[in-house]
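Researcher: Here's a chain I'd like modeled. Treat it as a single chain, no partners, no ligands.
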Amino acid sequence: MLRQHLKQLAYPLTSRYLSNCCVVEGPLKGSDERVRVLLIHNCLFNQELRSRLFDTSQEVDRFHLPTFQLRRWLHRNPHRADFVCAVLPPWCHHAFEGLPHVVTREEVRQLIPVPGSWEELRQGFSRKKRQISNQFELKSGLTCRISRDLQDLEFFYHQMHVPLIRRRYGSRADLDDWKAMRRAFEQGFLLLVLAGDQPVAGALSQRADNHLVFRRTGVLQGEEAHIRRGAQTALYYFQLRLALELGLDAVDAMNSFPFLDDGVFQHKADWGAVTLPDEQARRRVFLLTSESAEKNARFFEINPMVVEDGTGLCAMIGTRRQPLQELSPAQLSTHFRLDGLHGLGVWGLEGHRHFDLRIHGATRRATGSSLSPIRNIPL
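Model: Modeled as a single isolated chain. Structure tokens:
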């Protein structure tokens, strides 16, 4: 126990100068082609990436790499890795200079702008969310209430938040402790979704910088049945309604993995969230790409992601089905929400192509509907 505690205390310092590395190999999902990937730094992002890349994989080697040796190691590539994913401090960028790579962050921030009316707000929703939000309370039978009661927080934390995060992430779950949750609650409130009188979902929220910050979420016992009945959907619906009535500028949906097809990312984007960089991030993700265009196409086909190009955020995706010259941003945006991104890069069998979305545009428009105000929600 003492040894483990000392390792945890020393980790923030040692991780700056010494990285845990793991070389894994296996067939890419949906393909018979085997690839070898070097994962630098043992973190949730690299664990997620590995699970996205492979159905089955084997560990080829595990070792520690001093940061000052990183550049030489990457150029030598002694393990003959097809891809390298390194999660490191920003100052390590020099090690990747001259090598084909992209940069992202472990998470992106998602913000839902709140304009002056419900009709305008619904224009940013996906088609499915516009349909769901039409007479949502009548169709779902769900209501909500605001609480600043500590007993409600205890119920939310133990019966909603912890079970949901454990169900979603399993052994990789990174949970706030009770004291941290209580400190956040003292600066905010709970929005509880009710089925009759029974709370079935909740959100710990705060007001900051004229935003409604959706800080933590939970579903009763983490049960999928409540999610299917609309409990999580109701959290976004009622918080957007509340932000609108309070005259706030946006709902801050906070951070998500930067993968365009990630369920959490997509759910927020379908409610109209634009993608922003995580300005609080202390590390960067440096992804060294393959010499093979076909491997890159498959890699980004199963891992479409938000990357940085020095001037802003872009989408990076892959396709092996169509020639690059036949593609258009309008066609590709039917598969992904690109709000907040200024560019779109596509890897295909022929190589790479880039689209400037500020020129092409890929916005979504819809008509809204009238709505009566939320009642009995004092703040």
